[in-house]
Amino acid sequence: MTHTTDGLGAKPEHSKESRGHKKGLHRRKFLGGMARVGLGAVGAAGAAFSLLTEGTRSKAAAATDGTLTIPDLLEGTTSDGTTTFTLAAQTGTAEVLSGVTSSTAGYNQSFLGPTLKWTKGDTVLLNITNSLTEDTTVHFHGAHVPPKMDGGPQNAFSAGTTWSPTFTVLDEAKTLWYHPHALGTTAKQATHGLAGMIIVEDDSDTSAALPGDYGVDDIPLVFQCLAVDSAGDIKYDQTGYLSSGLSFPLLVNGENVDDTTLSFAATKTRNRFRALNASPSDIITLQRSDGGTLTQIATDQGYLTEAAEVTTIRLVAGARAEFVMDVGEDVTLQAVITTGWIRGGSGTYDFLTVTAGGTDTPDDLPSTLNTIERYDTSDFTARTITLSNTGATMKINGSAGLSMASMTMISTTLGAKEIWTITNASQLEHSFHLHDVPYQLVSINGEEPTGVDLGWYDTFEVVGGGEIVIAMEFTDFADDTYMYMLHCHLLQHEDEGMMASLMVTES
């Protein structure tokens, strides 16, 4: 992908040069329709749904030399026990469609951002400068940090200013990410490229036994399904998504894989992949093209109790997962895309071929990766959180969170243990994200969780007409001014009001 610096609002120059077409390497099966939108029929969900498959006929061309791009690892500077990272949210241009320049945004670059690496127990300081022309925030998605440092709407800072959150890393090893979270502009800013991965390391025996050499055998995969018109304009709201002539490209680490299968030359036998669905709304299911298994080792919030052999890994918007593969022969990974919103991507993409090159023989994986004590929820405080909509206005417990004042307020206390029933009263897909603490799934559409669903989460799918029950404990942080958030991580739904505030105070 070609990157240059430019203003987000400037009309870019369009090049007609097309690079990197390798259609012979790529296999696609169009799926069409709306997968898993609701438990019941979509019914009267609106005329907009009739347009769902139109965009699948106009796919973008790839702009790549064929090799998987590894995001830069941002080096921090350590002094007096604090590691400082410097970021700038800025505008630029990039080729999202081959040969067409799009106005974009990124951290320290024109599109996307570098990977941050934190270590449990360390104190970090982030100096983040807003070089945009509007307010922004930076939310550390999945991190257990004080609400004043969480990067929610109350932490918005204006153009030309710098926000400097600092905190001790309390999280164990896991994959997090960072992105904007200001009121009404999250979809616009994140869709244009303001997103990056965070890797948290720890000194556990499990971490020592797993691949951890960034870019060598520990590989980030940042997925984005975007909506782009033929002039390169990236769409982010309902009006944009319903315009004509759109392509819905799939990007992996900023590279378009619609017509190109990227390659990664493995130099180790065992390789670890960290998958992040940074899409505004689309759902991504990962699988092997040969039907083989992936060894999943982690969900959003860290290691599973034991490695799980799975054939697919389903990621709703905002979700993460980690898996390992012992590559003795070349393996091609696929991403199956289904839309979670009014329109979006659709199809199966051979997005990455991992070529075997390792000569080492790795040890067996640890029989136990993590200890997860399942909650006994019999004495937990119960709540019901209802997700609904009136037309395009999205609501939590009947209120549209279009401002801090209009949001539903959930109030709890430090040390509280709670069980929430998240009920989807609409026939729309939702991706439920809770700030501050991880949660366990107690039930999914009336069924007890099994397998990887017994891990820790912060983002999980709630299908139309469906219901999940989750349990959590509020630890470490309380504040009577700053709040956390709970919301749908379909970014358009968040901006259209499906967000509530969470106040954790001293008991």
Describe this entry's structure for a reader:
- The protein is 4% helix and 40% strand.
- It is built from four helices and 36 strands.
- Mean pLDDT is 90; it is low at 2-37 and 40-64.
- Strand 2 (77-79) and strand 3 form a beta hairpin.
- The protein is globular.
- The protein is mainly beta.
- 49% of the residues are buried.
- Strands 1, 2, 3, 4, 6, 8 and 9 form a seven-stranded mixed sheet that branches. Strands 17-16-12-19-24-21-22 form a seven-stranded mixed sheet, with no helix packed on it.
List the helices and strands and how they pair.
Blueprint: E1 3-4, E2 77-79, E3 82-97, E4 100-107, E5 116-119, E6 123-130, E7 139-141, E8 162-163, E9 166-168, E10 174-179, H1 186-191, E11 196-201, H2 205-209, E12 218-225, E13 227-229, E14 234-235, H3 238-241, E15 246-247, E16 250-252, E17 255-256, E18 262-265, E19 270-277, E20 283-288, E21 294-299, E22 302-310, E23 313-315, E24 320-326, E25 331-338, E26 347-355, E27 381-390, E28 393-396, E29 409-413, E30 417-424, E31 430-434, E32 440-444, E33 459-462, E34 467-473, E35 484-488, H4 491-495, E36 499-505
Concise structural overview:
With about 500 residues, the protein is mainly beta. Helix content is about 5%, strand content about 40%. Strand 3 (about 80-95) and strand 4 form a beta hairpin.
